[in-house]
Design brief:
- The chain has 392 residues and is mostly helical.
- The chain has one domain (3-389): Up-down Bundle (Na+/H+ antiporter like fold), CATH 1.20.1530.20.
- It has helices spanning 3-18, 20-23, 30-41, 56-74, 79-84, 87-112, 116-126, 135-138, 145-172, 181-205, 217-235, 239-253, 255-282, 286-290, 295-316, 324-332, 338-350, 355-374, 377-389.
- Helix 10 (181-205) runs parallel beside helix 12 (239-253) and helix 13 (255-282) crosses helix 17.
- The longest helix has 28 residues, at 145-172.
- It starts with a helix and ends with a helix.
- It comes from Kocuria dechangensis.
- Its main location: membrane.
- One of its GO terms (biological process) is proton transmembrane transport.
Length: 392
């Protein structure tokens, strides 16, 4: 990591932590801080962080961050969790996610004029959500439990569901060397590695003469993740699906490790996320936003924020019994999934013909989304709290 990037990250992290308590009660957000920090420190403004799209640190950091996100996301959704409370998240994932993808693709085709293949790739990249950016919603007990559970499970699963679609569409567009059976092999091998490695480690840990010390149990979970990452790197298995499968396997067959790893894992993932957001912001210049994106791109971005997910979830929640104000809150908090940040970088690095145009649109949607959603999460949480506390 270049010295200027490391110094910038350290300073922004210190500022973010010092204002975090106040930020939790206001519209200030650490995600916004790092995004704007990257934007201001990048090329075109202060030129402190000299990064370009082809810089190895961009792709490496993005891959590590997404691996960590998918691993920790998988641990939020063990098989038991999915069986016991699947009603609303199932609607959002099995109906809402595909509809969001299709509506976003239609907007890209008819508003921007992209070909259908690239439009669906754009829709797949922007479909996942990540309410970790809206922590005031999923982290406050005042918010109705059904809504918190819905957003938690949805965000934990939709990155993994969207990933195979992104990979297949990217391969179809010529963005990967793997195609057809080779891509299928990489995906299946990744899932197999993600399932088998944790199962073997958990079985070993339960042997009478092998036992992790209590205070070191989080590191045992980290070692599983690192082993999965190393094996996938050596065998060219898909490391993202391996990470997601490994997280689900740990949650399902070693729930005590999920509990021990939870705080440590969230902090590690948050660090990598913020670093990736800083890099993402540094790739966005004033010229990028205001000269290189046409008016149609801005219209698409606004519609992607205000129409695609709201319309998809409105259909998904018909006759669900979820109160209207909670439906609206769930509809609003998208499409700024962190996975979309990394998928956007992967598209940019893929070298497909429309890579630059797609990245511009992805970056604009996420840029506006982080600004809009991360600055309204506290307001929406307070409104929900007031509504729930209102006497009947």
């Amino acid at each position: 990591m270049p010295g200027s990037l490391l110094l910038s990250f350290a300073v922004l992290l210190l500022i973010g932590m010092l204002i975090s308590e106040r930020a939790s009660r206001t519209v200030i957000s650490t995600a916004v801080l790092f995004l704007l920090g990257g934007f201001l420190l990048g090329d075109g403004v202060l030129d402190v962080i000299p990064l370009a799209s082809g810089d190895p640190v961009v792709e490496t950091l993005a891959e590590l961050a997404l691996f960590s996100v998918l691993f920790t996301d998988g641990m939020k959704v063990g098989f038991r969790d999915l069986r016991t409370a699947w009603h609303l998240p199932g609607r959002a994932l099995l109906l809402g996610l595909p509809l969001t993808l299709v509506i976003t693709a239609a907007l890209a085709h008819f508003v921007v004029g992209l070909p259908w293949l690239e439009s669906f790739l754009l829709g797949a990249v922007l479909a996942p959500t990540d309410p970790v950016f809206a922590s005031a919603i999923v982290g406050r007990e005042e918010v109705p439990p059904r809504l918190r559970h819905l957003l938690n499970v949805e965000s934990g699963v939709n990155d993994g569901l969207a990933l195979p679609i992104v990979l297949v569409l990217l391969a179809a567009a010529g963005g990967t060397e793997a195609g057809g059976w080779q891509l299928t092999e990489e995906i299946l091998l990744g899932i197999a590695v993600g399932v088998l490695v944790p199962l073997v480690v958990l079985r070993l840990e339960r042997l009478p003469f092998l036992k992790a010390q209590d205070n070191l149990q989080p590191l045992l979970t980290v070692s599983m993740g690192l082993l999965v990452l190393a094996i996938c790197t050596a065998t060219h298995a898909n490391l993202f699906l391996a990470a997601f499968a490994a997280g689900i396997t740990v949650a399902s067959y070693g729930p005590e490790f999920r509990h021990e790893f939870e705080q440590f894992g969230e902090l590690l993932t948050e660090l990598l996320k913020l670093a990736a957001i800083l890099v993402f912001g540094a790739l966005i210049t004033p010229a990028f936003l205001f000269q290189e994106i046409p008016l149609a791109g801005w219209v698409f971005a606004v519609l992607a924020l205000t129409a695609a997910r709201p319309l998809a979830l409105w259909v998904s929640f018909l006759r669900s019994g979820l109160p209207r104000n909670q439906q609206v809150a769930a509809m609003w908090f998208g499409p700024k999934g962190f996975a979309s940040v990394v998928y956007g970088i992967l598209v940019l690095e893929s070298g497909i013909g429309a890579a630059d145009e797609l990245f511009h649109l992805i970056a604009l949607v996420i840029f506006l989304s982080i600004l809009a959603h991360s600055s309204t999460d506290v307001v929406v949480a307070k409104k929900l709290d007031e509504r729930e506390s209102r006497p009947l």
